[in-house]
Amino acid sequence: MQQYKPKYSIIIPTRNGGKYLPTCVDTIISQKYTDYELIISDDHSIDGSKEYLETLSSHPNIIVIEPEKSLSMTEHWEWALSHARGEWLIFVGQDDGLQPYFFRLADRLTEIAYKSNLRTIMSERAYYFWKDCGFFYGDIAVRYHAKKAVKIHNCQFETMKALLLLQSYLNLPEMYTTSLFHRDIVNEAKQKQEGRMFVTHPQDANLAAIACSLEKQYLMSYIPLGWVGSSRKSAGLAVSHNESSLDATKRKEDLDSLKKEYVDKINKSNLKYNFLAGDFNLGNGSIYFWQALLQTQNLRSSLENRILTSKFFKVILFCRVLTKISRSENSDLRLPMFMEILRRNECRFEMINLFSKITSLVADSILLLGASIRKILRMCPNNINYIVKWSDDANINMCRASNQVNTLVTQKKWLKEPKKP
After folding, report:
1. Pairing of strands 384-389, 140-146
2. What's the pLDDT at 4?
């Protein structure tokens, strides 16, 4: 008997996220759609998550699994991915969620992708900031922007923008909350990497490197697929929290503990962080993405790999990174780590420092112009701009935000209504 293969595999790797997990799961299973599997992989949680997951055992689309031993985040993702059977795959963080129209939009986008021979899909990012991270992100609770548009983007061009800090690598396809990968690209990556999808940390940079190495183009939707959640359990917040002054010692201690657990697992894992990229604690997105590209060299030609390690390219990259570090609040902590990267790559600080001042003028002008254009375009009356502050609505939550967004999208008639069962 042939094994059932759902159209979508949605994978939630979780650890001690019981405060957020029920909301995340509800954004998925509350939708009137059945051609999917929801794989929830619990990495030995001790906060009551197991008891919650036991209540889901009767749901026909949910599969709950647990690795034999606790893993680093990236290795946990690899293990969870090995259980997926779907044609299109997506990871969702435990404090994230899917939009209430996710399956309607995904069906539309995958149809376009088939016709255009594309294997990766990316969407606009929509944000939900859990109240427990207000000390870091301030008063903002929800930020959602959408317009009815689908475009095809060039991978090489978008890759260079991410490396040169003209955009975050998070705006690239990464099979995570806002991105879908077809199984063919997953299989190809594994074939070229000795059976592994993940070969380095962090996992999202690894996935972006795969998409931009194996594909020439990707499909971009300006209607968001998911909610990018930020909470006290977000690894990204734990790694970067020392960039901002925290208003409570207890909060800093919690984040320091999460960061220590995250980094300790990385150090003990079998996956390597490239020597040329220095210390993982530097926390710079361009360096994360660059080292992910270095670690996935089997996915690209020898010429492309030589460019990434050429002195000319390194100088440009490090100039942009130095500008970013020098403007951060904890530059005194990060500068020594950056100097070590320069030493490992045989680059002189004096030269990088001089060029960074020159390149920053050009880059700042480009970023300012781009931000101004985006602001003007977002004012278009046909777009959706939905922003909520905690001071305006102290009771806002992801489910209420989802209902409001669904109403706004429905009023626009952007997506087909689901068929009645």
Report:
1. antiparallel
2. 80
Q: Residue 214 above 80 pLDDT?
A: yes
1 — pLDDT class (breaks 50, 70, 90):
very low
How much is the average pLDDT of 4-10? 94
DSSP element (H, E) containing 240: helix 235-240
- Region of 138 please: left (phi>0), alpha (psi -120 to 50) or beta: left
Q: Which residues contact 312 (CB under 8 A, 6 or more apart)?
A: none
pLDDT over 70 percentage in the chain: 93
The pLDDT value given to residue 380: 84
Stated length of the chain: 421
Q: State both tokens at 281.
A: 């604690």
Rounded distance, CA 235 to CA 201, Å? 12
Domains parsed from the chain with CATH numbers = 8-234+386-412 (3.90.550.10), 313-378 (no CATH)
Phi/psi region, residue 157 (left: phi>0; alpha: psi -120 to 50; beta: rest), is alpha
Whether residue 246 contacts residue 421, with contact meaning beta carbons closer than 8 Å, is answered with no
106: closest CA among 175, 169, 43, 155?
175
Max Cα distance, the chain (Å): 67
Model confidence pTM above 0.85: yes
Sort 191 into a burial class: Cβ within 10 Å, 0-12 / 13-18 / 19+. Answer: exposed
Quickly count: other Cβ atoms within 10 Å of residue 306's Cβ. 11
CA distance 215 to 403: 35
pLDDT for 377: 74
Question: 328-355 burial string, b = 16+ CB within 10 Å, else e?
Answer: beeeeebbebbeebbeebebeeeebeeb
pLDDT at 244: 45
Residue 153 has pLDDT above 60, yes or no: yes
What pLDDT score was predicted for residue 421?
Answer: 41
Distance CA(323)–CA(317), nearest Å, equals 10
Whether the CA torsion 280, 67, 20, 400 is positive or negative: it is positive
